[in-house]
Amino acid sequence: MIETKDVYFTYPNGVEALKGVSLLINDGEFVAIMGQNGAGKTTLVKHFNGLLKPTKGEVLVDSINTRETSVAKLARNVGFVFQNPDHQLFCESVEEEIAFGLRNFGFEESLIKKRVDWALNLLDLTKYRQTSPFLLSGGERKRVALASVLAWDPKTVVLDEPTIGQDHRQKEKLRQFIVQLNTQGKTVVVVTHDVEFVAESNPRVVLMSEGKIVADGLAEKILTDEALLTKASIVPPQISQIFLQLSDLGFPANIIDVYQARDVLLKRLEARRK
Amino acid sequence: MSMFSGFQFRKISTPIHNLDPRIKFIFVIVIFAVAIMFNEFLVLVVLFFAHIPIVLVAKVQREWIRSMRGAAFLATIIFVTNLVFSYIYGGYQLAPWILENAIALTLRFVVLVESFSIFFLTTSPDHLGLALEQSHIPYEFCFAFTTAVRFVPVLAEEAQTIMDAQKARGLELEKGNFLKRIRNYIPILIPLIVSAIRRSLELAEAMESKAWGAIKKRTNLYELKVRKGDYILITLTIVMLIIAVYVRLYLSIPSLTSLISH
Q1: Are residues A51 and B164, on separate chains, in Cβ contact within 8 Å?
Q2: pTM value?
Q3: Using the beta-carbon criterion (under 8 Å), do A51 and B167 form an inter-chain contact?
Q4: Are A226 and A236 in contact (CB under 8 A)?
Q5: Do B48 and B157 lie in a common domain?
Q6: Residue B163 belongs to a domain
Q7: Strand positions, DSSP E, A180-263
Q8: Does A105 touch chain B (CB under 8 A)?
Q9: In CATH, what number does A2-226 get?
Q10: What is the pLDDT of residue B4?
């Protein structure tokens, strides 16, 4: 459980990135944090593992105040995958890279081997076991970064912009993977700009703008609220745009998913045929 | 990375910012020379405090304090080393002059950092490049220099992100003995170096696609001019240098210890 209580954060250069954020994320939830550039999304999630400490207010992770513990202790339970894998890869092989975190957390060698095998297999990287991470493609490096965090099996996984620079197929695979993680009981927090990505998974959406939370609710509710989205400079998913324009024909306005849309349309067409 | 932020330029207009960078550079070099010429506490303390009015006029107090704080770590090492060695050379006796000497040598380092920091805090990278160009240094070197200066804050920011990413994987920089602590920085240095090399290749491509070096003779939109303030500064600098040389050659400076004991 992660709880932020009226959190304010000001960077050393004077930029106030968070202005009173209160948020409760329960165990097992799937949360997407959205908003324009500079809305404070990344700043907020960096509080979840103690990388940043609030200037005012407090952040509780499993009822422990992040001010009273270390990043290393918090990171054991809150895994954080950074936007750019190049900011963390440094080992000679993918295997070593995945073992790095495990060694830091003091896992035993026999267990490290097991966890590494498991993580390699999980992200389809077994064939790259001995390869240098620097020789892999962008998408593969991203998977290595993800594997290196999932290896220690943190209770919560925070992903910062996981879909950037990935082709459609990789993105879809990643989405299914994230949804799967969540159904297996992990708390998943995703920071993203990608509306289509969010629309297809329908998580809880926390919408941020200028350092504040402006909306919090199910994706189908928030991604179809035009006034709200304009305020946060987000364009609704394409399928919702169509349905929003057709709402005067009696179509529901809260459609964000293509399959759902197809069902609604089919029903209407069949009713007509009769 | 606080030491770097002490060198980060912020664009504002003050009498100090508007000085010709060439003159300012000569001033810094003279401060350097004077600081090296003397190892007496009294002179160095005067040099240290002489910078404060400049800092205030240039309105860079906050950045200046940050760079001083950044220098504190190295300054402590210099202080302790000097203290220990002059203690050993002084025949294992703890005399007040040993302390004074150690403080003076630490101050010398602080003065050097201080004047360099003020120079970079009040000189825009563009002006610096212009100054080099107008000193007839080949443009390739000027460009390399200004690029290096410009990328310091970018690299500092990147180093911070990398540190965060590795901390999030359980890396504890402060853990372990001295050697272990140095080794702790490998996971930060490797991504930083790799990305710097990658960035430089990208920069080279971007420059070539903008036809860098296509025309041999370059013209500039702005040109540096030596103004009244610059003449005042250069006069002050020369006077300071002459006085310093004179004092060094013909006068002896009392140490604080001897002043107190009289």
Answers
A1: yes
A2: 0.76
A3: yes
A4: yes
A5: no
A6: yes
A7: 187-191, 204-209, 212-218
A8: yes
A9: 3.40.50.300
A10: 52
